[in-house]
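User: I'm curious whether this sequence folds into something compact or stays loose and floppy. Could you predict its structure so I can see for myself?
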Amino acid sequence: MGHIGKRIAKLDNNMKKGFAILYDQCSDAVKTRLETVDGWDRIDCDQSVYDLVKAIQKICVGHDDTNQDMYNVVQACKNMFLFRQSDEALTKDYLRDFKSYWDTCEMYKAEPVSYPKLVQARLDEIAVNIALPSADEKSKTELEIKDEFMAGLVISSANQKRFGILKRDLQNAYLKGQDDYPKTFEEANRLLSNWKAPQTSAFVRPPARSGGVAFIQSGGKAESNPKDKAGKPAPAPEKKTNSKGESHCYNCGESGHWSS
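Assistant: Here's the prediction. I'll summarize afterward.
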């Protein structure tokens, strides 16, 4: 019994050290917010690492004790479903942030995937006894639906410019009867992290043959220096003038062109 007591005392001492280390790693802003968390006096007194982590997590995901709990849940789910990878975001940062939004919803007990009809439709396909599926079949199916939904959402929210070709390839493969869509977040993570867009041949404009101005003739060919019928350089077009010999635009006042 004495040996067990010493181990408990040592564990308690280590937990308090962990509490102190974790608290010291927090920024001043987070420490200030911690003091306003409900039950902070108890958490600080008990030196509970678990409660400290939960409190820090709520602060980092934007939890506000001044808001109604249901409103916080709505905000968390809204942030997750509206989250998109920006053009500047690295794929690893996008995947990390997406997982954080998902975990935040789960922290609020707001399961992002709770679609009984999807689960039932899958059970109708795999259950041995459709009328009475087993608890193991239900649990396994619910997990599969959750994983597939999460994988589909992370692919859908990925940057269109960067992964548009990938999304199109997945859709085209499915139309051909081959389902290549990832079924778990880990598979989606691996696919996005290692995806390499196919090389495309870019159009390069050919260099101009001469520095002169090209004029397109009716035959479709370009002629840099137009000539008259005798083969001599054609004279420059006469400048248009009015009855007073003036040649300027009545709109802008500049000379050399007429107002249109």
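Summary: Residues 249 and 258 are 5 Å apart (CA to CA). The chain has two domains: 1-60, 68-196.
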